[in-house]
Automatic annotation (TrEMBL):
Gene name, Swiss-Prot/TrEMBL: LOC101655958
Species of origin: Echinops telfairi (Lesser hedgehog tenrec)
Top EC group: oxidoreductase
UniProt similarity note: Belongs to the cytochrome P450 family.
This protein's name: unspecific monooxygenase
Signal peptide per UniProt: 1-25
Keyword terms: Endoplasmic reticulum, Heme, Iron, Membrane, Metal-binding, Microsome, Monooxygenase, Oxidoreductase, Signal
Cofactor(s) in the UniProt record: heme
EC numbers: 1.14.14.1
Location of this chain's protein in the cell: Endoplasmic reticulum membrane; Microsome membrane
Length: 488
């Protein structure tokens, strides 16, 4: 009986603390639905489609509202005006990385994606500079992407027109580009190390997009004691950490400070110059390497995969892209970034794929790094900020019929490519994607090279192709499919 009484008292204290925590300072935060003790607003969210839930809540509470993830207040920004005002107009104030317990447990505040403060600034500045200047040595990044595009089409050619699931091959190509930048090495598509990489990266994006992780984020301390997808992700991260450490040690043994070969060499040289700074350490390099792999492989491969599905669904779009490829590039040379300015329809199609799929519907969480007055609300320092990128990419103010796949959204009346401030596929502001330039290059060159060499033949009638994402939590993941690559 004493144990029961103690448990009841403990639960009662937790409930009272939760209610106090949620009501404390409520006048400062934007309005929102009333949270329940401990679990917050989880019952008002569909864990299978968070983005749709946020859109429904915005209809009631407006473009700026507060949700509770467990006992933590989270400010949600919905629509272009609110997102732009926070990420661009007040970019510095909202430049923190918000609450993401699984990533914090895996990365411990290191690397680029989930770090904060000076560590984040140093890693981001270094990574941007190194990627931008990677014309060092004899080959530019574009050379590497074109080389991988040739390998990509050769792998599809080996299928000899038989039904093929493109997931693995489309993952290998961007992974190899990252490998060549970080390790100065690419892998054959049958290499066991590459196969293991791809398996783990696919696992991680699938688990992160599952309803389980949305639930885990509410009470991570509680769920850490139980099995689940979070354990699988942590095991995968540990394996990737060990692999990166092995490669770093090999680089340390053969380092020539006057002749850096790749990203790791550049970091090791910087470490020697910044030897009194705690941020320039092997642990930070390991996490940064894995951040580049995670952000630079699965996001691009998922976009390519979804792109092929959409192009099969819309053969009239594919035909126009291939006509433009024939007229500008021809059949006998590899497409290059110089061609893009002469291929407005192809450029518009690549943009429309990214807009339509809204790969990261709610972006990665931001955080206020200071108390800030925002639209007459006072948002305290440390508050997590969720920005609905789908609400921007699918805005009917900018894109007529936003739920329809139409490259015309990025073309003017004369057929020229038309830029849009609403195109935030790579986020915006201080925390925009470090690898945006590389990803744009890969998407354009890989897709145009595939369509230059193959006709995409679906196994069913295009009108019956399902393009509904199978997961829409962390990332928008397309349903599995097969197709035939018919050589042209």
């Amino acid at each position: 009986m004493d144990l029961v009484v103690a448990l009841v008292l403990c639960v009662s204290c937790l409930l009272l603390f939760s209610l106090w925590n949620q009501s404390n300072g409520k006048g400062k935060l934007p309005p929102g639905p009333t949270p329940l003790p401990i679990i917050g607003n989880i019952l008002q969210l569909s864990v299978k489609d968070i983005s749709k839930s946020l859109t429904n809540l915005a209809k009631t509470y407006g473009p700026v509202f507060t949700l509770y993830v467990g006992m933590r207040p989270t400010v949600v920004l919905h629509g272009y005006e609110a997102v732009k005002e926070a990420l661009i107009d007040h970019g510095e104030a909202f430049s923190g990385r918000g609450y993401f317990p699984l990533a914090e447990k895996a990365n411990k505040g290191r690397g680029i994606v989930f770090s904060n403060g000076q560590a984040w600034k140093d890693m981001r500045r270094f990574s941007l500079m190194t990627l931008r200047n990677f014309g060092m040595g004899k080959r530019s990044i574009e050379d590497r992407v074109q080389e991988e595009a040739c390998s990509l089409v050769e792998e599809f050619r080996k299928t000899k027109g038989a039904p093929c699931d493109p997931t693995f091959i489309l993952g290998c190509a961007p992974c190899n580009v990252i490998c060549s930048i970080i390790f100065q090495k690419r892998f054959d598509y049958t290499d066991q190390e590459l196969l293991k990489f791809m398996e783990m990266l696919n696992d991680n994006i699938r688990i992160l997009s599952s309803p389980w992780i949305q639930i885990y984020n509410i009470l991570p301390g509680f769920f850490n004691y139980f099995p689940g997808g979070h354990k699988k992700i942590l095991n995968n991260v540990a394996f990737l950490d060990n692999y990166a450490l092995k490669k770093i040690k090999e680089h340390q043994d053969s380092l020539d400070v006057n002749n850096p070969r790749d990203f790791i060499d550049c970091f090791l040289i910087q470490m020697k110059q910044e030897k009194y700074s705690k941020y320039w350490a092997i642990e930070n390099l390991i996490t940064t390497v894995n951040d580049l792999f995670g952000a630079g492989t699965e996001t691009t491969s998922t976009t390519l995969r979804y792109g092929l599905l959409l192009l099969m669904k819309h053969p009239e779009v594919t035909a126009k892209v291939q006509e433009e490829i024939d007229n500008v590039v021809g059949r006998h040379r590899c497409p290059s970034m110089q061609d893009k300015s002469n291929m407005p329809y192809t450029d518009a199609t690549v943009h429309e794929i990214q807009r339509y799929i809204s790969l990261l519907p709610t972006n990665l969480p931001h955080a206020a790094i200071q108390d800030i007055k925002f639209r007459n609300y006072l948002i305290p320092k440390g508050t997590t900020i969720i920005t609905s990128l789908t609400s921007v990419l699918h805005s009917d103010k900018e894109f007529p019929h936003p739920e329809t796949f139409d490259p015309g959204h990025f073309l003017d009346k004369n057929g020229n490519f038309k830029k849009s401030d609403y195109f935030m596929a790579f986020s915006a502001g201080k925390r925009s994607c470090v690898g945006e330039g590389l990803a744009r290059m890969e998407l354009f060159i890989f897709l145009t090279t595939i369509l230059q060499k193959f006709t995409l033949k679906p196994l069913i009638d295009p009108k019956d192709i399902d393009i509904t994402p199978v997961a829409n939590g962390f990332a928008s993941v397309p349903p599995p499919f097969k197709l035939r690559f018919i050589p042209i």
